[in-house]
Amino acid sequence: MYKEGNQEPNVWRRSFLTLWFGCFITALGYSMTMPFISLYLDTLGHFNNWQLNLYSGVAFSITYLSQAIVSPFWGSLADRKGRKLMCLRASGVMACTIFLIGTAHSVWMVILLRLLQGAFSGYINNATALMAAETTHEKSGQVMGNLMTANVSGTLLGPLFGGLIAGFVGYRGTFFITGILMAVVFGLTFLYTKEHFKPIPAKKMKSMAVIFKGLANRRLIITMFLTTLLVQSSLMSIAPIISLFVRELMHNQGNVSLISGVVAAMPGFGTLLVASKVGHLMDRSKPEKVLIFGLLITILVFVPMFFVTTPWQLGGLRFILGLSSAALLPAVQTILTIDVPAEAFGRVFSYNQSFQATGGVVGPLLGSLVSSLFDYQSVFLVTSLLILLNLVVVYRVVQHS
User: Fold this and answer.
1) By the 8 A CB rule, do 386 and 233 touch?
2) How far apart are CA 242 and CA 379, in angstroms?
3) pLDDT digits (tens, 9 = 90+) for 358-394
4) Per residue, what are the HEC states of 11-38?
5) How buried is 204 (Cβ within 10 angstroms: 0-12 exposed, 13-18 middle, 19+ buried)?
6) Contact 97, 113 (CB under 8 A)
7) H helix intervals, 82-192
8) DSSP 37-83
9) Measured between alpha carbons, how far is 48 from 64 in angstroms, rounded to an integer?
10) Quick one: how many helices (H) and strands (E) in the chain?
11) CA 375 – CA 391 distance, rounded (Å)
């Protein structure tokens, strides 16, 4: 773990900036392509509304499904071999698979490549675990908040860039450019990230059962995993169909790609505005309190989305959603950093990633199903109920702890 004065601050700072940039580009590349996945799939065949919603949900969530299955394996390997190697694996495979998606000529090829992408993903998760191990507890909230800022900044700018690129060179161009950017991340991570890691022999590694048995707040840790799942499900429920919803609100008139990108990016503006301040707040106060407050505000934002009639109303509410989102997953990660031993960071963060990935499966599929059975607005009522359930569970566990 990094201790000021014991290791060169410049080395730690260079590693942090490199990983910050890597997280930024990873989120940028992801959000450059994902808001338009349904529109891209629509160019690969002739589908009715039900088929397009279904294929969009599957293509969107298949990455998270494979990610949820293999993340524990990668987490165990990270605790034995180091998190830098995991960042290189994730960025390298992502560069290849996303570039190849741009060459796809069928829906099933896109789905297969996204399955492979999910199986080898995890750059942001491993970068977070690496910095958690390199940072003192006194700065963990600030570091988690800053990494969240990188993630959010990329998520914010990605749809805007993606919309512009798609308008000029088509949807395929966004995948080609994203693949090249991820190759750059691979090179920078290899050259400039320094990890003070001592490999742990497999025979000397404590099992997760032993580690969990020794935790003072086991219920709290398990609740954080559940929180990650429910929050991710709620935030991602509208993601694969947001461009279709915007197209409906615009009555299929105007630049749907650009407006979809703006609406998709609005939560990023809100989160970017307050992410750093939330990080400092978590270092001064209890992250559990910040998490509960964020869940409450999120519920109050989702309900009015049911009544929107224009893309700009939806965008405004999603901006407010971004303000509350800044207090959700970073708070969970800070709680995990404080309450889990450093020797298990890789596995615990990988388990958390599995729950996050499961939320990425459940949310889009749930959103596609609800929108197909009812309408797009109904998705927001369902997600608000999920967050309400999460709030009740978190409040009771925190009170008990």
Assistant:
1) yes
2) 11
3) 887 788 778 878 887 888 888 888 889 989 999 999 9
4) HHHHHHHHHHHHHHHHHHHHHHHHHHHH
5) exposed
6) yes
7) 83-101, 107-119, 123-134, 140-169, 171-192
8) HHHHHHTTS---HHHHHHHHHHHHHHHHHHHHHHHHHHHHHHHHH-H
9) 25
10) 17, 0
11) 26
Stated pTM of the model: 0.68
Q: Which residues of the chain have pLDDT under 70?
A: 1-9, 35, 136-142, 199-208, 214-216, 240, 279-280, 283, 339, 341-346, 401
Give me the phi and psi of 240, to 5 degrees please: -70, -15
Q: Which residues contact 283 (CB under 8 A, 6 or more apart)?
A: 138, 139, 140, 141, 142
CA distance 225 to 359: 10
Which helix H or strand E contains 246, and what residues bound it? helix 242-249
Q: Which two tokens stand for residue 14?
A: 């260079």
d(CA 41, CA 60): 11
Q: Which two tokens stand for residue 30?
A: 């992801």
Nearest Cα to 322, choosing from 67, 125, 149? 149
- Annotated domain spans of the chain: 9-194+211-400
pLDDT at position 189 = 93
Q: What pLDDT does 296 receive? A: 92
Distance from C-alpha of 164 to C-alpha of 38, rounded to nearest angstrom: 17
Assigned fold of 9-194+211-400: Growth Hormone; Chain: A; (1.20.1250)
Give burial (CB, 10 Å; 0-12/13-18/19+) of 138.
Answer: exposed
